[in-house]
Amino acid sequence: MNTVPNSFRAQPDDRGHFGQFGGRYVAETLMPLILELEREYRAAKADPAFQAQFDDLMEHYVGRPSPLYHAERLSEALRTGAEPGMGAQVWFKRDELNHTGAHKINNCIGQILLAIRMGKTRIIAETGAGQHGVATAAVCARFGLPCVIYMGAKDVERQQPNVFRMKLLGAEVRPVTSGAKTLSDAMNEGLRDWVANVHDTFYIIGTAAGPHPYPELVRDFQSIIGREARAQMLSRTGRLPDLLVAAIGGGSNAIGLFHPFLDDKEVAMLGVEAAGHGLEGNEHAASLAGGFPGVLHGNKTYLLQDEDGQIAEGHSISAGLDYPGIGPEHAWLRDIGRVEYANATDVEALDAFQLLCRTEGIIPALEPAHAIAAVAHRARTMPADAIILANLCGRGDKDIFTVASALGVAI
Ligand SMILES: *Cc1c(COP(=O)(O)O)cnc(C)c1O
């Protein structure tokens, strides 16, 4: 399908490497399963019936295609104070309107169809803030499969509404008490369960990380975001955007938006990591800006770690961004210079969150608020006819208590 010479979309290689990153660093016992998963995924990808079922669920269960929206009042507000003739047009891909409130469901639908195709009868997943856990619990209910969600004990405490949602949807939530008791530990526990139960269990990983083929298959399922956006932008404006922007936790919504545009040389791309309280200390989650390469969760990538390779616990006001690693494809895209990466602090994200509420009547999740903060900086440096397309990857209902507390408001 790929006819572009030296295509940026041709990765990974057949052993799962994006340049020096990615791969499959897993226990011997997992290897046969990883290979089986890869084989099945290749077969599913080539099977029109699989694609048709995916498309049908995307339309009727998830609510796709999500709209492409020109944020005129936000664009106007960002133009204030810019040089004359400057201040780009901001457009949003509205993935926050998906069923369950974020982009996670795209990937969960794809993976559960794969699980069913492979004859697996039990689903496991990890979750941090709970968004991936909720999306996984939803698709498990939809297909009548039992589901165990691993969640750091600390996150279970912090994210009670999502824990309750998962339980309502019929999932069993297992608190993980090892390590820092957060997302990274939950993922270790998920991989451990998988090794022990390979015969009947499918592990639905929630971001574009993990051992090959996960980074590739998560990217492919999430690429529906970029494929739709590219077609919508062409039909609405007759051209491609000048700049794509997306927030990065593990990197799945960002790679989903970017990937279909990677060979469009005129389209620049910006991934936005969470800078928490700032990059100076350890209170951030910017794996590219503040980490270095290492191996975690079955792949090689940039990681937040100390000199001994101990994984550091990330911090962000947005629980969905504090993963200590980043998907290997982003590590590669950064190193070859195809995608630029920046970051936004908690304070900048909070400001952007409020700005979007007031200018467009949209309450974003705190994750895309980081992307909007970066958009606010960039828009002023671009001409008034330039187009920025940002992924609004989640809605903010889940975050209002965090925001209230950060603003010192009692609710
Ligand atoms: C989980 C989540 C993220 C971070 O995950 P990625 O894999 O980087 O996309 C970002 N935004 C929202 C709304 C999320 O739920």
Q: How would you describe what is shown here?
A:
It is a single chain. The protein has 411 residues and is α/β, with parallel strands linked by helices. Helices cover 42% and strands 16% of the residues. It contains 16 helices and 14 strands. It has helices spanning 31-45, 48-62, 72-79, 104-117, 131-143, 153-158, 160-168, 183-196, 214-222, 224-237, 252-258, 287-290, 328-335, 346-360, 366-379, 400-406, and strands at residues 17-18, 21-22, 68-70, 89-93, 122-127, 147-152, 172-176, 201-203, 243-247, 268-276, 292-296, 299-303, 340-345, 387-391. The strands form 4 sheets. It has a 6-stranded mixed β-sheet with strand order 3-4-14-9-10-13, with helices on both faces. A 4-stranded parallel β-sheet has the order 7-6-5-8, with helices on both faces. Strands 1-2 form a two-stranded antiparallel ribbon. Helix 5 (131-143) links the parallel strand 5 (122-127) and strand 6 (147-152). The chain is globular, with a radius of gyration of 20 Å. Pyridoxal-5'-phosphate is lined by residues 102, 104, 131-132, 207, 247-254, 320-321, 365, 367, 393-394. Pyridoxal-5'-phosphate binds at residues 102, 104, 131-132, 207, 247-254, 320-321, 365, 367, 393-394.
Proportion of β residues? 15-25%
Task: Give the termini separation.
Answer: 53 Å
**Which hetero compounds are present in the coordinates?**
pyridoxal-5'-phosphate
What gross morphology would you assign?
A: globular
Number of helices: 16
Over all CA atoms, what is the radius of gyration? 20 Å
Name the helix and strand elements from N-terminus to C-terminus, one letter apiece: EEHHEHEHEHEHHEHEHHEHEHEEHEHHEH
The strand line-up of the biggest sheet is 3-4-14-9-10-13
Tell how many strands the DSSP assignment holds.
14
The overall average pLDDT, rounded, is 96
In helices, the fraction of residues equals 40-55%
Oligomer: single chain
**What characterizes the major β-sheet?**
6 strands, mixed
Structural class: alpha/beta
Note poorly predicted spans: none
